[in-house]
Design goal:
The protein has helices spanning 5-13, 18-27, 34-46, 70-86, 92-100, 108-133, 138-181, and strands spanning 50-56, 62-68. With 182 residues, the protein is mainly alpha-helical.
Length: 182
């Protein structure tokens, strides 16, 4: 995942101007300065991943609204898939990737999230065994119990996402069958 993914993902979530992108990135805990962001936006425009369109703001000032190009959408989808596969579930990169998941191939998301869930289940098993298997110091036990709770929540969330995707896919298939029969 590149350093530009957060910028592209923020624009993918809602085409906006650079200052809104900056606010969005800062609100999810990513350190970003105005000068760096503007430099990266210009580079992404020059590289063909973003395009800028002049528009009037609510107070009449001119600003540049940013939009993804076709190449930008492809890059966001590729990097979102990578972040969903590898980024820590509690990370800003994972949150941005979830926001872009709609850009992924409908069949791709379960294939990305199932291995994630399996790894989380393995980690949960290891943490629970370590918690039961020894008499750790009080703070170590508290830290392990916290990791267990987080892993349980992550697994539950991943299961719910996969279940919703399965239901949505089944509804889509059924709707296509009905259209074909009509």
């Amino acid at each position: 995942m590149s350093d530009d993914f957060p910028i592209l993902a923020a624009v993918a979530a809602s085409p906006v101007h650079s200052f809104r992108v900056l606010e969005h990135l800062q609100s999810i805990g990513l350190p970003a300065s105005r000068s760096t962001l503007y430099r990266r936006v210009e580079a992404l425009i020059a590289a063909g991943f973003l395009e800028a369109e002049e528009a009037r703001g609510p107070r009449g000032h001119v600003r540049r609204d940013l939009h993804l190009t076709g190449a930008g959408r492809e890059r966001v989808a590729r990097e979102a898939r990578e972040a969903l596969r590898e980024a820590p579930l509690e990370s800003p990169a994972f949150a941005l990737a979830v926001g872009c998941a709609r850009m992924l191939d409908h069949q791709a998301l379960p294939g990305v999230l199932r291995p994630r869930m399996a790894r989380a289940a393995q980690q949960l098993t290891q943490e629970e065994r370590a918690l039961r298997g020894s008499a750790p110091e009080e703070w170590e036990a508290i830290a392990r119990a916290r990791r267990v709770a987080h892993l349980q929540a992550d697994i539950t969330w991943l299961q719910s996402v996969l279940a919703r995707r399965t239901v949505a896919a089944a509804v889509t298939v059924e709707n296509e069958r009905e259209r074909g029969a009509a």
